[in-house]
Amino acid sequence: MKHLLSFTLCCFITLSVSAQKEKKDKTEPESDPDSVGVVSERLQPTTLPLLLFDDNEKKEKKKKGKKKKKKNIFYGVKTKKGRIKSTFRNQVQYVFFFYTNEQRKSDPYIRDIYWYDVKDKVIRTKDFDASRGYLLHGPYEKVIDDKLIEEGHYYFGKRHGTWLSFNDKHVLQDKLHFSEGWPKDSRVTYYNRAENKIEKLTPIEYELKEGNFFHFYEDGQIAVTGEYRYGEKVGLWTEYWDSKSKVVRKREIQYQEVPFSKDFRPYIRAEWDKEGNLIYRKEGLGAN
Fold first, then answer.
1. Which position has the higher pLDDT, 57 or 152?
2. Considering 119, 140, 173, 224, which has the largest number of Cβ atoms within 10 A of its Cβ?
3. Using CA of residue 120, residue 121, residue 125, residue 131, what is the dihedral sign?
4. Considering its fold, how many domains does the chain have in total?
5. Which residues contact 94 (CB under 8 A, 6 or more apart)?
């Protein structure tokens, strides 16, 4: 699906669960992450995002884009310029980028958030820590031996717009399109297209499933979350009960950690009832 999508989240449910009426098994330690299936410890993508198709908004952005650009200001945000130099096998690599000290909450729907680790002087894609770095924001270029290899833009740590990659003869090798971190080629299915009631969000890159997958119930609550790499299911996939009052895990299925792993069989890691009580855990899996 190659429509210009501008992803915004309609809302997130921050669940705060009061003292549970159910008695916990005294043999299970309080730190046991499986003891209660109710999702209340951290922010989860518990409701569907709203995909906007506002032509007027697009026209306004184009008008603003025609105005004279201010130095180091991208998407209305002031940035600083950064550079990382490294050498590998007698090749000198430069990475040029911009970053902002403005904070923006990480989107649970986006897998990779790019940020500059000031202490280690590297660009990371996971576990953003505002105490030691900044979100990438604005143009990005990678140059090896004075030859442009990759270029694109970031928007608060997320890949945005058109990304191009080249070989050492500057021949275009790949061209990808993103909208605030989400591949524009992603496949979206709906319960009701006219009302934008999303059923599934399947990320696509290079014509393969790549990234975080989401399945929603018709009322918008999350039903399934998981991750694809190179078209293969990886890591922990979680199913949720269709509960109106709270988000409760139903089942966790463990898939291979690395794509194309031989002799790996997916298995059910744990299950919970509708109230969040643990009813099954694979033997050998203790509390963390």
1. 152
2. 140
3. positive
4. 2
5. 83, 84, 85, 141, 142, 143, 144
